[in-house]
Amino acid sequence: MSVATAVAHPNIALVKYWGKADAALNLPATGSLSMTLDVYPTTTTVRVDPDATADTLRLNGSERDEQATGRVTRFLDVVRELAGSTHRAHVDSVNTVPSAAGLASSASGFAALAGAAAAAYGLDLDARALSRLARRGSGSASRSIIPGFAVWHAGTDEESFAEPLPAPDLAMVIAVVDSGHKPVSSREGMRRTVLTSPFYPAWVTSTAETLTAAVTACREGDVDRLGRITETNALRMHAVIQASDPPLRYLTATSHEIFDRVERLRADGVGAWATADAGPNVVVLCRAADAETVRAALAGLVELVVAHPGPGMRVVERA
Amino acid sequence: MSVATAVAHPNIALVKYWGKADAALNLPATGSLSMTLDVYPTTTTVRVDPDATADTLRLNGSERDEQATGRVTRFLDVVRELAGSTHRAHVDSVNTVPSAAGLASSASGFAALAGAAAAAYGLDLDARALSRLARRGSGSASRSIIPGFAVWHAGTDEESFAEPLPAPDLAMVIAVVDSGHKPVSSREGMRRTVLTSPFYPAWVTSTAETLTAAVTACREGDVDRLGRITETNALRMHAVIQASDPPLRYLTATSHEIFDRVERLRADGVGAWATADAGPNVVVLCRAADAETVRAALAGLVELVVAHPGPGMRVVERA
User: Fold this and answer.
1) Does B239 contact chain A (CB < 8 Å)?
2) I need a surface site. Which of A75, B41, B226, B263 has the fewest CB within 10 A?
């Protein structure tokens, strides 16, 4: 019997992933660019158990139902096939994202699970292979394998992994907005967008161009350009989603108020640019030196958390 | 010397006009569908003056500057060419839209000006010719010539006019939202969208299909279908605008709150659908019988005005 524990962090995309080229393999329609955070780690232990007849999943101390376990089992099946094993496993995961924070925990969750499961099943995978593996659980998990800034490539199963990207010294201020209503999952939102938004093909084409520009801005340390690209790309993602039928709006009134405040900050000469994933939270990108100024300017509306580039997935224990 | 006075009302599009095929002739990239309102009339008097050396413009009792007058002169030049006249004119216009209401007054303004100028210069034009003429001043003015519901066709200069459309018994509740910042004009917003939004070509293609469906829903009296089309099309217009570079957001936090309230109204079984032009105001379409219910549900947030289908442009005096 073999046990391993891994830790991974969430990431926030500056150029977004929205839409799959292949749903079974989680291949994205376009590449994306993200920053892995230094807050809200997920710690996951996988214990391979030759005597077990089914996989089990504990999340924050509670045994999870069949549906949640099913997604983990499908992921472990990929690992077992690579390892040539048929043994079941017990997965115990502790996720520190406050559930009200609405930050997707699937990226850190599947990155940590990929690392722990690979180690527990005795696979020796490099970062690229781990990123491809994590992708199978959740697309954006491919990026949480990588520390700091990462580009996740579109392409075939072989080609679609995340890798590190040199970047300037940046920070993010996370504004935790409560949506007040049951969210539509990213998975369902992507499906609706691909099927019903007339803007989806142009989103794919334009995001591919945006990614090239963002990678160049990152490498050249051009923060202003990277910031403008980040906000424009985020608003384009929310636009392509909003154009679905029926329409889908993830940003709330409060989210828009934060976008307005960020616009005013820029008018005052502070380099700050807003982005948002498929939910009401707004994340503000800025130079590390400006993080406190940005936090102060957003204060009083919602809970704020300052994040910096964080570590990639690490296996912290194996036995 | 000849004088004429005309009255016209604003209109709100259910299928939006956003983007020109020809800027000089104000030919739209797509057709649109609107309801002319029974509130906020503009009354305009045109006095042809053989002795004057320049056109003059008074708006709500104040003499306007050269820039505002210039747009009127360019419009009167079209009328003069049709009439074979070189005489200048004095234009006196009274607009009852409260300026804080942010409802575009160019539709009612140029519809009234077209009617008054045509009469004052001795032109005998039918509704179709008046609609084409009003279009030259402001695209959406072509629709304010027509009472109640109107379709404005895309096409050549000859083909691009508005005409009446049979429709069910509907009302609109106008929520007057203050933007709190200097707006970007529709003209400038359209330009930026056409030049920089990657979604613009798909907006044009999809809106053409949407218009066909909306005309059918109108003719068949299918209010639910027309309502859904109205809200989806409005959110698509704001999406194609938001995807511009730099991004352009006309809806404010309060606008989004009203869209949320309308969504909740529908969840409660009330047929209500939100739309918004290029500004923060939200207009809620509903059955005439539901107008009071909708008004009550939106109360307490901003000023509300209930509007019904209104008259087309009328020449009320000539001498």
Assistant:
1) yes
2) B263
Residue A225 is assigned to a structural domain of this protein: yes
A81 and A212 both lie in a single domain: no
B206 touches A at CB < 8 Å: yes
In whole angstroms, what is the distance from residue A238 CA to residue A282 CA?
12
Closest Cβ–Cβ partner in B238, B245, B253 for A254:
B253
Residues 6+ apart with CB under 8 A from A241: A18, A189, A193, A197, A248, A249, A250, A278
Beta strand segments in A9-116, E: 11-15, 20-22, 27-28, 32-36, 42-49, 56-59, 62-63, 88-95
Which of B181, B199, B238 to mutate to test binding with chain A, by most A CBs within 10 Å of its CB? Answer: B199
Q: With an 8 Å Cβ cutoff, is B240 touching chain A?
A: yes
Q: Provide the CATH number for the domain around residue A258.
A: 3.30.70.890
Shared domain check, A137 and A215: no
Whether A236 sits inside 8 A of B198 (CB atoms) is yes
When computed from its CA atoms, the radius of gyration of chain B, rounded to whole angstroms, is 19
- Domain identity same for B159 and B231: no
